[in-house]
Design brief:
Layout (H helix, E strand, L loop, with lengths): L12 E8 L2 E10 L9 H9 L5 E12 L1 H17 L2 E2 L6 H12 L14 H34 L7 H11 L4 H23 L8 H39 L2 H7 L4 H39 L4 H11 L2 H27 L5 H33 L2
Parallel strand pairs: 2-3, 3-4
Antiparallel strand pairs: 1-2
Helix pairs in contact: 2-3, 4-9, 5-9, 6-7, 6-9, 7-9, 7-10, 7-11, 7-12, 9-10, 9-11, 11-12
Length: 383
């Protein structure tokens, strides 16, 4: 039978002496592990406080038999206290592993958290917002100028982009957008007819529902609803595509190869929307009039021929041309907003989401504001 017992680890001990007036030497020995009862630094703090001449702390660790994170925690607390007292710690005689871990732990300072951010004055906030607005306006104008130059190069046949990309973007902006445009336009026309019928029926003028729906869809609602749908569908897609390319540094690669991102990426998207938006507006007008036709024939006892003749009399070429022109303008706005936010995207995944949201909001705001401007101008010009 083996009577030898495993030797118990020595308990960690802490001693210190003063080899010189300005130096405190700390002697560490035993097993410095958490379960061995790490000594408190209170005695060290009292020794340092009672001797204001101490400017440096050194260590003697030859007696340490084993250690873990308990020793590191003790040294970090001591380091924080000495930093406050402007006392230098000499780590030359610490174990190599402890020395490396201590350097890592003290390399990055602890982030300070503040319960409340200091409140800025009104003038400070106003100045900051003004500077941000000026910078944003400069970026927008620069982008519009570069897009205009790229479009002029297209007109003279010098723009560099792949025709296959243009075809794919046209397909995405045109054919694939028909289902959602059909649904929204049909429902808008149906709602306009129903709301108008309720009021016109009070005067026995149900036949004028055709005028109401036809003029409203062709002049305003067709182009505006198509623009809003395309802003949420295509404008967001443009921002997400370009933003992802920005994150993956594909746009930087194009610049390195001497290829203009404005011509290669932005121009095809802008041309596709300029071509497709007028066609989608005309299609939206037809679907809206069809929605009004369903209400007029189904609820108001108007014959199909009466509805057709009344719509034809109310809607003239001027109204149709105005709606198509608005569609072109809205298409340009959607393309510029989506591509601008995509090109401004940061280098993270969250930045792509922010760019997409900003593109949709910017495009919708531009569409609604320009719609109001068109309404004022057409009224002033008598169109």
């Amino acid at each position: 039978m083996d009577n030898t017992a495993e030797k118990a680890p020595e308990k960690c001990t802490l001693n210190f002496n003063r080899p010189t007036d300005n130096t405190l030497s700390i002697l560490l020995s035993g097993c410095w592990k958490i379960n061995m009862g790490i000594p408190s630094i209170d005695n060290l703090q009292n020794e340092i406080d009672s001797n204001p001449n101490i400017q440096q702390i050194a260590f003697d660790t030859q007696g340490i038999t084993d250690w873990d994170s308990g020793l590191l925690t003790f040294l970090i607390k001591l380091n924080d206290y000495c930093t406050q007292k402007n006392i230098t710690i000499n780590t030359a005689r610490l174990p190599e592993g402890v020395k490396r871990l201590l350097e890592i732990a003290t390399a990055v300072p602890e982030k300070e958290t503040h319960g409340e951010k200091a409140r800025e004055s009104f003038l400070s906030r106003l100045g900051e917002k003004t500077i941000q607005f000026s910078s944003s306006a400069t970026e927008v104008l620069t982008f519009i100028g570069e897009a205009s130059l790229a479009f002029m190069k297209l007109l003279v046949g010098k723009a560099r982009f792949r025709r296959s990309d243009l075809g794919l973007i046209i397909q995405d902006c045109g054919v694939k957008a028909l289902p959602i445009v059909s649904l929204i336009s049909f429902l808008v026309g149906l709602i306009l007819a129903f709301m108008g019928a309720v009021q016109l029926a009070l005067f026995g003028a149900q036949i004028y529902v055709a005028d109401l729906v036809g003029i409203a869809m062709v002049r305003e609602m067709g182009a505006m609803m198509t623009g809003i749908v395309m802003a949420g569908r295509t404008g967001a897609a443009f921002a997400a595509q370009l933003g992802t390319m920005q994150v993956n540094e594909e746009i930087d690669a194009l610049k390195t190869l001497g290829i203009s991102p404005m011509e290669f990426l932005v121009l095809p998207r802008m041309v596709a929307l300029i071509l497709m938006m007028p066609l989608l507006c005309l299609y939206s007008n037809l679907m809206g009039i069809l929605g009004g036709f369903i209400v007029g024939v189904g609820m108001l006892d108007i014959t199909p021929m009466q509805y057709f003749i009344e719509t034809q009399a109310a809607v003239d070429l001027t109204n149709i041309s105005l709606g198509v022109f608005k569609g072109v303008v809205y298409g340009i706005m959607i393309a510029l907003a989506g591509c601008l936010r995509g090109m401004q995207c940061g280098r993270s995944a969250s930045a792509v989401g922010a760019a997409t949201t900003s593109a949709v909001v910017s495009a919708i705001v531009l569409i609604v504001v320009s719609c109001g401007i068109f309404a004022v101008l057409t009224n002033a010009l008598g169109i």
